[in-house]
């Protein structure tokens, strides 16, 4: 089981509502059934990321417009994918992508993927988040670090992705002590390669570490060659049932 650097985070994690945050499936033209499944009533979704073409694309995509409309009608929160490229992305390009997401797909917020974690990058990320909130004052902002960043980032977003990686790493992962100062609904964990027989264990780890938004899949990254989030996990119905009923230890 994972080593925890804080017992407080685990204590708060056992009584929180867990929900699914979907990092983004393949294009709706390629995976129409999977996108349709996300709009099924009662699915315990926190949000779904729309990534048309490494962002919003160069023009409105009819298939993505249809998928986004279906999710919106079902009351599902949609986040536009924005790539920060670890701080190397030009601010103007980022803002342009954000406007396209809002104008074309009417997104409810943004996932800022490949977000830097260092303290030195914090001012530029803060600038980006402040600007996004200026153009969409109700935007839900998720910073996609993939690991624990400097704690200052927690003051600049609604949620942080503090783990994104393989099950073999997640089983022995550590939670940063500073996360105990925040409620579990501020943190997200994305884990690939989770065997069906270890779903309960994975959910317990998320709760112990104080992460209320999760996405677990049995798909793997093929040694870094495949996007494990592009297709729905083989046990989708099972994880929806477990999360939806609040199954815990």
Automatic annotation (TrEMBL):
It holds the Pfam family Spherulin4. It comes from the Bacteria. This is Phage tail protein.
């Amino acid at each position: 089981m994972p080593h925890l650097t804080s017992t407080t985070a685990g204590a708060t994690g056992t009584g929180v509502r867990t929900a699914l945050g979907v990092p983004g499936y393949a294009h709706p033209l390629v995976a129409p059934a999977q996108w349709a499944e996300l709009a099924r009533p009662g699915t315990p979704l926190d949000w779904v990321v729309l990534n048309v073409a490494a962002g919003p694309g160069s023009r409105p995509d009819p298939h993505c417009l249809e998928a986004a409309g279906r999710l919106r009608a079902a009351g599902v929160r949609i986040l536009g994918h924005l790539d920060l490229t670890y701080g190397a992305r030009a601010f103007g390009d980022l803002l342009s992508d954000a406007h396209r997401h809002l104008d074309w797909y009417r997104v409810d917020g943004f996932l800022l993927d490949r977000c830097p974690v260092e303290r030195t990058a914090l001012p530029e990320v803060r600038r980006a988040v402040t600007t996004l909130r200026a153009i969409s004052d109700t935007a839900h902002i998720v910073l996609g670090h993939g690991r624990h960043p400097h704690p200052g980032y927690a003051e600049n977003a609604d949620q942080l992705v503090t783990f994104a990686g393989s099950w073999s790493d997640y089983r022995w992962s550590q939670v940063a002590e500073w996360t105990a100062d925040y409620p579990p609904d501020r943190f997200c964990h994305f884990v690939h390669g989770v065997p069906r027989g270890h779903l309960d264990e994975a959910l317990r780890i998320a709760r112990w570490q104080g992460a209320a938004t999760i996405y677990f899949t049995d798909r793997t990254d093929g040694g870094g060659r495949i996007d494990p989030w592009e297709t729905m996990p083989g046990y989708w119905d099972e994880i929806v049932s477990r999360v939806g009923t609040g199954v815990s230890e």
